[in-house]
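Bug report

Summary: structure tokens for Phenylacetic acid degradation protein differ between web form and batch submission.
Environment: batch mode, default settings.
Steps: 1) Submit the sequence below via batch. 2) Compare with the web form result.

Sequence submitted:
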Amino acid sequence: MSVWSWDGVVPVVDPTAFVHPDAVLIGDVIIGPGCYVGAGAVLRGDFGRITLCAGSNFQETCVAHAFPGKDVLVEELGHIGHGAVLHGCRVGRNAMVGMNAVVMDEAVIGENSILGAAAFVKAGAQIPPDSMAVGSPAKVIRQLSAEEIDWKRRGTGVYQQLAIEAPAKLAPAQPLRAPEPDRRRVKAPEYDPLVLERRGFSERP
């Protein structure tokens, strides 16, 4: 990872988190236990604090920043999809922000809610808990079922497992000129519903 202090404030990464070598952390950034931060992500804590709480993920090319004096908070089990932008906002516990969505200053995504891909949440907007919100500007279209909330939790569990496996599996390489005969397929992490308890840093959702 590329880590930069800002005015003497140094990012913090828990030893059980995985931050990709091509991610960038600047200043007042706190990455909690069991988090996953993908390649190309930028967490820029030069104006306010950026916190990823235990078991959350911040996927490839996501950006977090804020206006001066404001913070970005992703609560426990938060799930930030590829290319999303968080600016001075809060993402509640076990909530998901879809791919390429934008969440603006002082907006709140409620606990267990899902924000659809490419949605835009305007400054100060409140998405209530257990909701599905889509569109630009984002609007709540319905409540989520218990099954859908569990589906989201399971998806986040896969990223928690990925954070455990990535240090051993990720390695620099040179491209091959052609596929090998009988090329092996990559095996995705298996979801383990007890992964957080076994790591000893979170309660079960």
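Above is the batch result. After comparison, the two runs are identical; trailing whitespace caused the diff. The longest helix spans residues 146-169. The chain has a mean pLDDT of 93.
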